[in-house]
């Protein structure tokens, strides 16, 4: 009887040791497989970040210099292309903050923000307005470092008492000075704000 008992104990020990080894093997296989999947995910995320083409709804960006807010940009959609340092917008709205605490509003159908310089290009039904004037054109650029708004295509400016058209224009926001060039025509009323 003791011999049968020893045989059963040996079989039981062998089964338990086999079960423990099989369990450890399964755990090791799962752990190694999981780490392999994590490494593949990390490589995939790294590749996506390097070539990121990200579509964003309801985009918002604020540009500041020396702690002073210079402009904000909102758009219905944005596509960020890191390789070209660009964000491409649909229906952008830009608010420029002036030194005299007034604001200038810009709207357009399309826009591009150069993310490396904060320069902006807008096109399609471009409207720039403040409380006194409204400028319309098809293309307009903003140079962030110089704080200059310019258009190389025809512009039209309308106020309550005047209207002016020109082939191109530039406006220095810091100096509050505008220059018009080419085929300049205007009609001015009695109440001209200069």
UniProtKB/TrEMBL annotation:
Q: Which GO terms describe its molecular function?
A: glycolipid transfer activity; lipopolysaccharide transmembrane transporter activity
Keyword Ribosomal protein attributed: no
Keyword ATP-binding found: no
Its transmembrane ranges are 12-34
Keyword terms, alphabetized? Cell inner membrane, Cell membrane, Membrane, Transmembrane, Transmembrane helix
> Which InterPro entries does the record cross-reference, listed alphabetically?
LipoPS_assembly_LptC-rel, LPS_export_LptC, LptC
A Pfam family that this protein carries is: LptC
Spell out the PANTHER family in the cross-references.
Answer: LIPOPOLYSACCHARIDE EXPORT SYSTEM PROTEIN LPTC
The entry's protein name is LPS export ABC transporter periplasmic protein LptC
What gene is behind this protein? lptC
């Amino acid at each position: 009887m003791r011999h049968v008992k020893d045989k059963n104990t040996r079989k039981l020990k062998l089964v338990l040791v086999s079960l423990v080894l099989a369990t450890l093997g399964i755990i090791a296989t799962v752990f190694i497989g999981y780490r392999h999947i994590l490494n593949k995910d990390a490589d995939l995320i790294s590749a996506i970040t390097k070539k990121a083409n990200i579509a964003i709804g309801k985009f918002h960006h604020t540009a500041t210099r020396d702690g002073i807010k210079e402009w904000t940009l909102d758009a219905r959609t944005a596509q960020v292309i890191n390789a070209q340092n660009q964000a491409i917008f649909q229906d952008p709205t830009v608010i420029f903050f002036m030194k005299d605490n007034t604001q200038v509003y810009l709207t357009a159908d399309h826009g591009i923000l150069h993310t490396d310089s904060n320069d902006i290009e807008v096109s399609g039904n471009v409207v720039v307005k403040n409380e006194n004037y409204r400028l319309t054109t098809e293309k307009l650029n903003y140079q962030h470092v110089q704080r200059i708004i310019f258009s190389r295509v025809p512009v039209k400016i309308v106020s309550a008492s005047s209207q002016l058209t020109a082939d191109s224009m530039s406006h220095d926001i810091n100096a509050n000075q505008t220059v018009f060039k080419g085929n300049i025509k205007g009609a001015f009323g009695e109440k001209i704000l200069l």
